[in-house]
User: Fold these one by one.
Assistant:
Number 1:
Amino acid sequence: MATLVVVTHGVGNHPADFALAWEKILHAHHPDADFQVAGLWWEDLLEKVAEKFPIVEQEFADAVKSFGFGQLAQLLDSSTYDQVRDFFMDVLVYLAMGEMTDYLQTALALRLKQLLHDQGAAAGETVLIGHSLGAVALPHVVWRERNAIGYIPYRGLILLAPPLGMASPLPAVVKDPLAAMPGVHGMNRPQILTAFAREWAAGALHLLINRHDLICADVRFSAGGAAVDPIPVAQGFSNAELVLLERECGGSVSCFTQGAADPRQVAANHAVTLYLQRPEFDAAFAHLLGVAP
Amino acid sequence: MRWREIRVTVGFVALHLLLALPAAAATALPAVAEIDGYLVRVKGLVDQLPAPPGDDGEIRGYLTGCVERASFLRDLAASPATEQSLLFVELKRFTAFRNTAKDGLGSLTPLGRSLLRAENGEAWPALGHYLMDDYVRGLVIRKALYERKYFEEDDPKQANLLEGWLNSRFDFCRTRDGAQAWYRRDGVSAFEVTVRTEPVVLVTRSTDVAVVLAGGLLYNFLPAVGQDAGDPFRAAVHDDLLSRQVKRVGLRAAAGAVFDGAGPDLLVGAGVQVRAISLWATYQPEETAWSLAVGVSDWRWLKRLRPILPYFGGL
């Protein structure tokens, strides 16, 4: 039976058939592998929550700027800044209201189970791939399942540009993406990362990080002759966390550098198409499919 | 043990069993042979540890704890007198024990990590997969209750970030896994905090209009929810009279401005809300005047009512 590959999008406007674009790339890079692709679409869920709390879009923009993102706005052209701002606001909306975090995780988890049921696929024959905010939500969803049944049943998880390293400046108000894992009350970041990494079999967990991707790495842009990190919030994993991940699940993190550290390249450096065509992704995907890269 | 503690314990177990019954009745449970298989595998893992465990003391403690729990589960499964619901509850308790123990493990040696992976990924799934149906059932019910509480009320689009944040902060408002209380259904709290600006119309002494910032504590009459018999991914929602007709009630307090033609005056009030309509007792300090007022927490209702309200340019 063919392996089922479930792909999950991040923020932005994604149609229900968003997975077609991913599927083309995956089949082009792995023409001989036996797999089928299914999209785990959740754009409508994000929109539903955004409509429920409409003030977020207006008021949070100012709040986000007050964290120092005005500096970012000066560096980036306005359209790119809007994309980045949208991303951070969606992350904040996802994380600031615990009830909505739980609702989104619950609804997404249910869709995932239904998707497998509809496709007639076993979890052990399923590979999950998430990009951007989808690479935050998928770990949350599989952790919810692990809490319920005691283990993670999926064959593997590939996280592209995961903002899981992001550290909230006000954790009492807005949680870290890691702290929004369900059922981790009382655990600190290293404990959460350790427990999560240990749940996966060797070679089953992969995190791909572009060092020039503002969403998952602390990129420094050149401005006025100095290297500037325009976002005062840590986006990437610390060195200690990367060491921890390597120790607990060897080979799970692949860092690479692609694209210029240029404010105008922010969107391009974060694009899912960039990640899907990286050799690091090919190797991880091939390993999970059980074929030669 | 004192009688009070015994009564509480018996009551808790009885409640637990009662709640577990519907799920257990519909769920297959591990057979003795499967539990034996798990025990053999995990005991084999324990045997791989060095005699004085040294740095592997933690993983030895974890694995031997699993063996003890599994032995108890096996004895339950082997006894013809054991109710299926009790076996189901014990399997869930075993799962919770494992999760807590795994999360609490400190640093492990490479051997320790390898043994943990073997127990977790190779041995446990034989038992853990029996909880999958209950997991899906929980998702279906939780989602349906969230939909009712947050998205299917009369005024779904009048919420704001502050409301969302507050409802996630107060313990009695937010969802808690496994929490049992008279105001919770499957962990979802019926209580909800609201903080909204809304129009109010005075109905005694004058027909002035006011706009207030109102805070409230509402109680949602949540329906009973289960899985649809024909589709395990759909919810079967069973409304009673209160959840269908009344939906939500609550107490509210407000402060705002009343417009009486001579400029805005301060107005404070306390009220009772049913669905999206509130009945207010208001007070204007400047005029030392009390009045009754009616408010709607959905501004769209104002548009609907406008044609029949004289003070809104209607009749």
Number 2:
Amino acid sequence: MQNAERLFREYHATLVRYLTRRLGDRDWAEEVAQETFVRALRQKEIVNERSWLFAVATNLVRDEARRVARQRRHLELMAAEARDLEQGEEPLTLERAQSASDARRALAALAERDRQALLLKEEGLDYREIAAVLDIETTSVGTTLSRARRRLAEHYEAIQAERREREKHAAS
Amino acid sequence: MPHPDEGLIHAWLDGELDADERVRVELLVQNDPEWAAAAADARGVIAASSRIVAVLDHAVPSTVPREIPRRRHTARWWMLRSAATVLLVAGVGILMRWRVPGSVSITGEHGEPRAVPAEVPAPPILSESQAKVRDAPMAQRTRPPEPRTGAEATAAPQETRKAADGVAGGVTARPPQRSRVDLPPQLPATASDSALTGGRTGLARAEPSRPAPANTPAAATAVERRALERSSQAPAAIAALKDQQTPRAESASNKMGHDTATRLTGATACFAMREPRGLTTRVLRLDEAQLADSVRLGTLSLRGDTLRRAGAPELGVKVPCQRP
């Protein structure tokens, strides 16, 4: 039990944040995190806890059967967000929501491995742990990350420029 | 000079290179303008990507969980807890000594029996009205009485005054002769003692459900129950007092349904658990860290058997605590 509590204390918040950023759905992220910790409790021995947890969570996200079931909810959530934006909220909230939407689109434009490496790094995993989660060589993590970061920045800038252009046309 | 390796530069900036490699990259960045430019560019890219990932959290303010600040285990907390425990034990001891009528043998600190003088006043028992007032929330106690009519109105001031006396004077203000339970002369020390006191420090147990008699003192405290037991009183009275917990135990049983752990809250929490011998209520004193963990753990809705496998046999469904 102590071990279970410690696992929660140390990794639950970061795991849920990683999954939420990855999936864009807090409820879904909570469910995946829950399943991950349940599996951790069943596991007799875990050598590297953090990479094990993130690897299991990542594999769960990959599970196509779950994805199909949940994607409907995800789409509904996105639709609800879009409706909220259309109804017009406070300028600051709208701006933030647009930035978040742009960031999500930019992240979605990355290759799966690049995206995962980036999000895992943002959660503080080191190269060895990222390599373990993604099942790649440690020496290639730097290259993967550099590519992911650059592409994310480029996509984000392009998306924002496109949106600004669209708004300018709409205003004129 | 080698061409700048962007992956290597990112690894260097992330602090992931070993000592030799780090020195080599540092020299290259210092001495080669191309490497220096690549390093500056990489710094910008890393900062930008981190900022973009952070922007994801803006979608819905409450969507992404924040870091929960870890509680620091300080000496002060343990001192406070120890002091509270000592005070509690001392208080219970004093109360029991003071309340027990007749000469009753009480085990001392070192296990030796001590004699309690016979002139010690009898244990005060609350009347129903006093108990109601004492058990009522503070808002109800301070609320002015609603207007009454007829005989009710004439009886009300006296009753209110009696109840208020019981509250204002606390335990010491209550007259000892107000007992409404007929108490037989002797209660042998039996297993019922450990059943009521829990057998272990910090545990209090409830017996399986039984209907409560109408003349039961409605709000006798755990201390009073123990005092009654130790002061050679009636098994009937003890049984009646045990029945005080019946509604709560039933409620817990209904809530529990099957063996499922649910959200845990409260600084001192009571948990109902189904065990082979019946429903048991346990009082767990959780410190802040344990509580925070339990709350987070509670969101998982883990099955009880899973928790037990993980070494958590004491988790159950939270129920209202009996306040001594």
Number 3:
Amino acid sequence: MAEVKLARRNFLKGAGAAGAAGAALATGLSACSPEATTAASAPARAPDVWHTLNATEAAFISAAVDTLIPADELTPSGSEVGVAVFIDRQLAGAFGNGARLYRQGPFLPGKPEHGYQLALTPREFFRAGIEAANEWTRKTYDGKDFDRLNEAERVEAMKALEAGTPEFAGFKSSMFFDQLLQLTMEGFFADPIYGGNRDKVAWKMIGFPGLPASYREEIKTYYNKKYDAEPQSIADFS
Amino acid sequence: MVTVLKEVDAVVVGMGWTGSILARELTKAGLNVVGLERGGMRSPREDFAIPSIRDELKYSQRQELFQDSAMETVTLRHARSETALPMRRLGSFVPGTNVGGAGTHWNGATWRCLETDYVLKSHYTEKYGRNFVPAEMTIQDFGVTYAELEPFYDKFEKLCGVSGQAGNLRGTKVDGGNFFEGPRSSDFPNKPLQRGLAGVLFEEATKKLGYHPFPQPSANASAAYTNPEGAVMGECVYCGFCERFGCESNAKASPNVNVLSVLMPDPKFELRTHAYVKSLSYDRQAKRVKSVIYVDPRNGEEYEQPAGIVILGAYVFNNVLLMLTGGIGTPYDPVTGRGVVGKNYCYQYTDAGVTVFFEDKENNPFMATGAFGTIIDDFNGDNFDHASLGFIGGGHISAGMSNGRPIATRALPPGTPRWGKEWKQATAKWYRRWFNVSGTACNYAHRENYLDLDPTYKDALGRPLIRMTYNFKNNDYKIGAFLSQKAADIGRAMNPTLVTEPRFRDGNYNAVPYQSTHNTGGTIMGTDPSTSVVNRYLQSWDAHNLFVMGASVFPQNQSYNPTGPLGALAYWSANAITTQYIKSPGPLMPA
């Protein structure tokens, strides 16, 4: 019954866009979506489904990517264009579970020039980072998790993380911020097949044409001229 | 349980550029050759096809075509007093794996070294005096000259269908090419590639300043091309997915297309994939390598392959590892300066320059190819006077974006936030309107920079990781400061809307950001066994049937990308093997 209720709530939140509910119900995906991630302003798309993030983590990541990539005249917000979903998928998959990461010990603290030296997989690292970040915001902002902060507070908190001000156990808070920002940018600018950059909004924003990327003639004819092309994704050719 | 296999005439370790070339030359000479590749087969038609190959996340960020650092990596310490830690992810450099090696995912820059690069120590000593080269700078001559290598450079350029503009044809200077290059016996097989905005503006500015700009020689074919082996290349389409990607139109030369397409059908050649060479079995008495031991990493089965000739064509670190674990040659000792294996490890000093931004221009950075630079060599090698500079060597300065892939290739004016509203606006505004003008410098050998076996960390086969004791030294920082000023002069001469302050790397060597996959040294070549691992024909002083290929034989790193020079050396060595060694196996030089 809880599933029905969630779906109902999504329906109400998305009611501004005709057809949203129909699309969501038809895919059957809406039931899994936690409340915090239903994007009220996103038209006609199924609510987000989480492969690995728990509800608290999903709320944090959604709020974080909306702070890093706010909605404006250029694009909708990070979560609205799928960046939170992208991060969830990446953490759920090979990357998140330590593919291509040398994981033999001993694990010793290194200099920044050594790069990542923790025993944690990216999935584990994000779990620890989100817990620590929420713990810090609860201490600093009247017991509130990051996603419960208002916009100005979120920006302030992100700047503090970026500067490494909060003390985290085991690693610098700026290191968590850097990895969060890295995944956010990957999600925003990667091919939409990975869940982010929905409708190629990031590519449209900057003028990156995506595929098929064959410019034998264009490199001459568009010398010092703006090349306007509707961006195309791998999915458009598959 | 090791399965002992039937002896073959020659076994080649690693099927990248050098391994493929040696396998081809040795089979042509009538030998039966087995090629061992730790990875799997990669064919452009299957593996580099559109649309999937145009995937920045998969190939560039998640490093699909590179060596798997979960299996093996190297450790780093900046000085002998420190404990080395593993590079847990690839960053600063990205060795390849699978058939074709890094030759599938390179950018295609295909250089020749300067004539003076080959006689570096004697050149500086003769020109500037006996004490000019500091004692701790352990540079040395290659033991082979540019003139000797020239025919083999020519052969490699034709193999790869290199696009470029000659600057010196048989001693006659040619306008528009590299004024400083050594004489070449013939022009490039293909005309230079098209240029983008950065290249054109750079050319104008450097001409105005009295320098000698020229197009970067590139193994991206500017026109369809059939190489002397009969392999066919397509024309470059300027897709901007070159380095870190395979080429779907076969326009970027690769071992797979330019060599293996004709080598594979040869019955004298057998390719074995998933054959991860673990060790060399060395007969110290006979001064020979008896066999190579390899593992199938899929099931752990071990095989011993005896061979008459053994070619090491792995990447720098594995060449050194196999020599050290095989007990072949004396390991380098930085305390006494004696020993050779692991000596003179060098890297590359990159990104000394500026970023320029143009409000009123369109750079279309995504219309690009890997080796897309316009270059000046006026401050490279000893092309300028060093008498009062306080450093030796230099670098080439270039402009020309190799791609506009949006996850990684975005620059913003200094002071712009990394996220938020202001970041978005600036990104939308500048993404198509900037490029770098940067110097890429040499990195000369230093007594304290070397490779040995890590005492703690192991690879997936249980072998020690290579330990890198390495840092940039004063010579590098001085070159960086110098090149960044020259690059800033050029940048400002373009009248950009904004130009950054000149920048150069002034801290410790950092293993995290990508710099270049131009690691060199560790099995260096020369004419004296007390200061080199292999002789001038790349033959081991300690095992006459062992020949070591690749940039691990460079005594130091000149500024140029290593593929051209190591391709020429591979043909040079192959020529010595096929014309001398096969007839009369034994040392090709007296020790």
Number 4:
Amino acid sequence: MRLFEDADYDLIPNRRIGYIISGTLLTLSVISLLVKGLALGIDFRGGMEFVVGNTTDVPTAEVRSVLVEPLENEPEVKRFGDTGHLIRVSSEKEITAVENLVINTLQQEFQDANIQIEKTNVVGPRFAEDLKRGAIYAVLGALLVIFLYIMVRFEWRYSLGAVAALVHDVTITLGLFSILAGIAPFSLQIDQSIIAAFLTIVGYSLNDTVVVFDRVREYVNLFKTEAFDEIVNRSINATLSRTVVTSVTTLIVVTILFIFGGEVLKGFSFALIIGVIIGTYSSIFVASPTIVELNRRLEQSIA
Amino acid sequence: MQGNGFKIGLTIFFVGLCGFYLFPSVQNLYVNYKMGNMTQEERVEYQEENRQWLDQLDQNSLSLGLDLQGGMHVTLEVEVASLLSQLGINKDDAFRQALQVAERRAQNEDVSVVNAFVQEFEAENPDGRLSRYFRNENEGITRRSSNSEVQEYLNKQADQAVQNGIQVVRNRVNQYGVTEPSIQRQGDERIVVELPGVSERERVRDLLESASSLSFHLMANPNQLQESVQRIIDYYEPTAEDSARIAAANADDTTMASADTSASADTTEATTLTSSSGQQVQQAPDDEGTSLTEPGEGQTGPQNPLLAAMQPMPRQDAPLFGRVFASDTAQVNKLLSAPEVRKMLPPGIELMWTANPRLTTQDGREAFHLLAVQEEAELAGNVVTQASVQFDRQTNEPKVSITMNSEGAREWDRITAANVGNQVSIVLDGRVYSNATIQTRISGGRTEITGLESRTEASDIVTVLQSGRLQTDLNIISERTVGPSLGEESTRAGFISVVSGFLLVVFFMIMYYRTAGVVADIALLLNVILILGILAGFGATLTLPGIAGIVLTIGMAVDANVLIFDRVREEQATGKTLRAAINAGYEESLSAILDANITTFFVGVILFSFGVGPIKGFAVTLMAGILASLFTAIIVTRIIFDYMVEEKRMSVSYG
């Protein structure tokens, strides 16, 4: 089977279409991030989280309403998998006290169901602060290291192109998380695993970009007479088959994770699905055009 | 094929190494499967017979994270602020205010409490000397000590408090009886405790958070204690009815019980030979202890459950309740916690374990002593101002020298005067670290503990005295628990994802690249084995995010082969022969493969350094996956192609 074998699409000449798509997505993302913001998970906000099992027949709203009074504030209640509920509480009280309040109340109110606590997650405010700091350092550190590595291996233009694509990918994925939070039927809160997913997206998107750039570097030496625009376009087309195949295999596995990986990995694998699609798109329509534009500026300033 | 010898050797070496590390895990799976088919009794018997081997298997197997096998993950923080407050003398408003601000800053910034405290104090009191709060001649802090010297001293104290906290937590966890707990220090002030299979959240929280402090306790009168021991053993003595009932119910049990008895007789012998306790008195041959163990031996009926787990050790000079192997301590705790039994102890007496094993048998089993200690402390540990290891001038034996402050010395004088000949114990957190007989009245606050076994024993006691005299407060700042059923569900979800992801990618590769696809799939299979081998070899744990990392690697690992194969196709299209095209394909795509993978590897490194808990597991599998896929995609597939094309002269289809 051969896909895109003799691909010869006018991708660089039509890069403005890409600009429009990216521009729209970026604008929407930034607006949503500014207006709606991100729902931070317990890792970065602190608080307590309980997963109770055997609540298949208990409506979510009822779980919430019976807990309001004993907890003295409204907890966040969601379905967790097929058979349970996730209850998020922000309380100053001791863990054991809150835990007992939750389980005793539920057991009393829904005596038919054999309700049990399946999972707890408690993060103190100071620990949350540390995790947040760690996450920010990780993302900034990753971007910096990548920038430096590409700069050493390629030229600064390529470096800028790669990082532009990365920022583009992460912003849009974050934006989608912000837009879809509350709409999607699974948790889209930002926690540690989402940060891990973002960094993986960064790695994946870079992988794609590097392959195209590597070909550009090769062709620049091979086709000395050709214009830079054309070389980049030729490189994208030459690697298009590989780009698509790798994207397909990666999409296969992340989709499987999304379907079979269980409730815990839903948000994580969702981020990866979005990331793989955007990362593939950006290496063609963001990273490559960036180096073309930069090259153009450079030539103009010389001329 | 020439020149491939090294590559083939390397491949065999790596695969062999992974096989070596994975072998126990595979064996473990098989054993568990086998045990799953046994009846309850068969399983217990099998486990008894092969305990050591099974333990070893468990230890060498790839371990599952808490999110997969269920359990508790707790992060504790040592309250350094309260430690500073305890250390400080002549505290005034400047001290208190600096401490308050420091506590708040440590919460919001990346700075330790000690450093924040010193900075705050210096900022508010430019000419102030910290030494006036922390004067301590024994630690070399005088009135003239500079602030940075004090800071160093405080950091050392904080460090010791964390070490002490770890020791306390370890003791409590051991007492609780968890298999394979992990207790690790994290950063400056934190302790991470992982308890697989634990679901009693409330109890564990109380256990971990309760404050600990050092104290001196008098002990029970040995004679009085032995009466209690006898009464408690009698209490658990099976009645004639029990014997008849149980003997009738199960003949197998009887044989097992008597086998057990002979085993415990063996260990009795071993203990006398290697007895390591500090007390010099040996057991007399006509000792009551022998007669105490007898009831279980002669009879064919049920055994006294207490004697099955514990060996009584009557002594004239020490209030020793008995000796118990580490594996039996939980059982003994259970038996002795019955209210009726507690009432049989002398009034005001509590049973406490020794902190360290007093005996280690040749096959590595450790035994602890159970001592009878007065519940009420005579003296708090904070009277100790200095403790050190010294050596006797004449015999050169190690000894511990303790100095107390004037208040403590006065009390100590009174206590020792009234109790010459009795034993006193140093207790930290409900565990006895040392028990010694008071030889004379001790006035003046200088005490020596002599007759110690080794230098290590002496320095262990000194560590406890130094670090334990301050109260270490531990707070839970984060906790994750996963119930066993959810863990099982996650394991199943992970397994399904790995298998289905693998099969789909394998299928896709064959569809797209034909023969070459099959070669890539062989590499992919090897890749998964290598990842698991690397994880087992480095003793990493497999978490759910870790499994996600493996699934993701399966999808991305083929990328290197995709790059190579596409390049081979391109080269073929320019009219090259198969052999030349393969050569060019591997050569030309190498730089892209390396660049792409090295950058992703960096991301893994960063994730590993900043991530916590399960995220680290993801980072580890991601990195292992990159290394494994580079190896299999570049080297292993090349060997296979070379073999097919050059050796067998086959024509390989790249689809």
